[in-house]
Specification:
With about 110 residues, the protein is mainly alpha-helical. The protein has a domain at about 35-105: 23S rRNA-intervening sequence (de novo design (two linked rop proteins)). About 75% of the residues lie in helices and about 0% in strands. The protein contains 4 helices and no strands. Helix 2 packs antiparallel against helix 3 (about 50-80) and helix 3 (about 50-80) packs antiparallel against helix 4 (about 85-105). It is elongated.
């Protein structure tokens, strides 16, 4: 479920960054997009790992990317690239995905499973 919800977040972020001014599409917008894609990519990579330690590392990186994403979206909001309403909706999605990833981290095996 964490991957599915983070995928929805990716789609929402891509939609929101289309609203950025043309001169920001390859600067802040690109950074935001790389960051949000990192969330889903690291969840997927963690899922595919056999080592419990590796799984936890990738899930933690994924959660860290969410914090980075939120910071970048705050900048976008403060520069009026996105509205407060769009920011609030994305922040809710970020918080939900963060809780899901935290749940995975709490229940992930810490020993090798393969």
């Amino acid at each position: 479920m964490a991957w599915q919800e983070s995928h929805k977040l990716v789609l929402s972020v891509y939609k929101a960054t289309k609203l950025f001014p043309a001169d920001e599409r390859f600067a802040l917008a690109d950074q935001i997009r790389r960051c949000v894609v990192s969330v889903t990519s690291n969840i997927a990579e963690g899922f595919g790992r056999n080592s419990g330690r590796d799984k936890l590392q990738f899930y933690a990186i994924s959660r860290g990317s969410l914090f980075e994403l939120e910071s970048q979206l705050l900048i976008a909001r403060d520069l009026d690239y996105i509205s407060g309403e769009i920011f609030k909706n994305l922040e809710c999605q970020i918080n939900f995905v963060s809780r899901l990833i935290s749940g995975i981290i709490k229940t992930a095996p810490t020993k090798d499973v393969g």
